[in-house]
């Protein structure tokens, strides 16, 4: 009888745990599949730690980042990770407290470092019509770069693509002069066979807090509150530093 009651309690506990559909894109070291096709990554581990504290279970759905945003807006998926908060996204999404910071840099070819040595801040690029920048579609790189992008001088000098690898190949070929990205993403490029020794950082643009982003259509303020409480608890726990160290990510 005791075993029956114990099994019943365990089942009730499992049933009580809410599931949320999480959209994700493959980008090492944040979210990726290992050689055994198991889902891994810094953001995956942090999300699981947050969900464990909030009483949620994650069901994962892989798709390109642009589609993640569209599906979240429609409510087909309920949550995604590593999101910057913007006025446009506020219209269809709720944002948790930040759970880590993200760095944004401007990469150039190492051989061009001398050519661009007088550039020490983004505004210096406004007077350089010979400098074209590559960036990813539907990505946000923080308030500083967002303001910079809106400058009239830059409107014809931004090259947008869906994936980072083609942008880096254009950079190495000298067809564009810089690429904006999180330097931790260089791990993904290394796996793709990109010669990283030919790249270097021209500018450290900004550190931006990133959030979990929830669909307004299919989540509630109460769910957001539970996630915020879980994030607060995780940030104060030893587990947070252990997860960051596992991926050699700077302690926040």
Spans where pLDDT lies below 50 across 5 or more residues: 1-15
Compressed to H and E, one letter per element, the order equals HEEEHEHEHEEEHEHEHEHH
| Morphology call | globular
The CATH topology of the largest domain turns out to be D-Maltodextrin-Binding Protein, domain 2
**Helical residue percent band:** 25-40%
Q: Which CATH class of the largest domain applies here?
A: Alpha Beta
Quaternary state, please?
single chain
**Average pLDDT taken over every residue:** 92
Q: Terminal Cα separation, in Å? A: 50 Å
CATH architecture of the largest domain: 3-Layer(aba) Sandwich
What is the rounded Rg? Answer: 20 Å
Instruction: Indicate the proportion of strand residues.
Output: 25-35%
Q: What is the number of beta strands?
A: 11
Given the structure, what is the number of helices?
A: 9
Q: In total, how many domains does the architecture comprise?
A: 2
> What structural class results from the helix and strand content?
alpha/beta
Question: Biggest β-sheet, characterized?
Answer: 9 strands, mixed
Query: CATH-wise, what's the superfamily of the largest domain?
Result: Periplasmic binding protein-like II
Structural features:
D-Maltodextrin-Binding Protein, domain 2; alpha/beta; 35% helix; globular; 9 helices; 252 residues; 11 strands
Word description of this protein:
With 252 residues, the chain is α/β, with parallel strands linked by helices. The chain has two domains: 18-99 and 208-245, 3-Layer(aba) Sandwich (D-Maltodextrin-Binding Protein, domain 2), CATH 3.40.190.10; 101-205, D-Maltodextrin-Binding Protein, domain 2 (3-Layer(aba) Sandwich). Helices cover 35% and strands 26% of the residues. It contains nine helices and eleven strands. The protein has helices at residues 2-16, 42-54, 65-74, 87-90, 143-149, 164-172, 186-191, 221-235, 238-246; strands spanning 18-24, 32-33, 39-40, 56-62, 79-83, 93-95, 100-109, 133-136, 158-161, 178-181, 199-215. Strands 1, 4, 5, 6, 7, 8, 9, 10 and 11 form a nine-stranded mixed β-sheet that branches. Strand 2 and strand 3 form a beta hairpin. The longest helix has 15 residues, at 2-16. The termini are far apart. The model is unreliable at 1-15 (pLDDT under 50). InterPro entries: Solute-binding_3/MltF_N.
């Amino acid at each position: 009888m005791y075993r029956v009651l114990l099994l019943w309690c365990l089942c009730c506990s499992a049933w009580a745990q809410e599931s949320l559909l999480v959209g994700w894109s493959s980008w090492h070291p944040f979210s990726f599949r290992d050689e055994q096709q198991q889902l891994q990554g810094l953001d995956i581990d942090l999300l699981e730690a947050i969900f464990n504290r909030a009483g949620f279970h994650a069901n994962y759905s892989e798709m390109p980042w642009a589609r993640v945003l569209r599906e979240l807006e429609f409510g087909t998926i309920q949550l995604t990770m590593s999101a910057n908060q913007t006025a446009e996204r506020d219209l269809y999404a709720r944002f948790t407290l930040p759970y880590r910071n993200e760095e944004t840099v401007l990469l150039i070819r190492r051989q061009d470092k001398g050519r661009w040595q007088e550039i020490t801040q983004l505004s210096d690029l406004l007077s350089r019509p010979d400098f074209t920048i590559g960036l990813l579609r539907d990505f946000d790189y923080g308030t500083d770069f967002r303001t910079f992008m809106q400058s009239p001088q830059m409107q014809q000098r931004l090259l947008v693509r869906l994936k980072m690898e083609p942008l880096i190949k254009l950079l190495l070929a000298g067809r564009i002069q810089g690429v904006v990205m999180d330097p931790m993403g260089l791990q993904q490029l290394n796996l793709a066979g990109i010669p990283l020794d030919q790249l270097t950082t021209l500018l450290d643009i900004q550190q931006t807090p990133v959030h979990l982003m929830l669909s307004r259509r299919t989540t509630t303020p109460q769910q957001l509150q539970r996630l915020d409480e879980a994030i607060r608890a995780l940030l104060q726990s030893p587990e947070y530093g252990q997860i960051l160290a596992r991926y050699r990510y700077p302690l926040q």
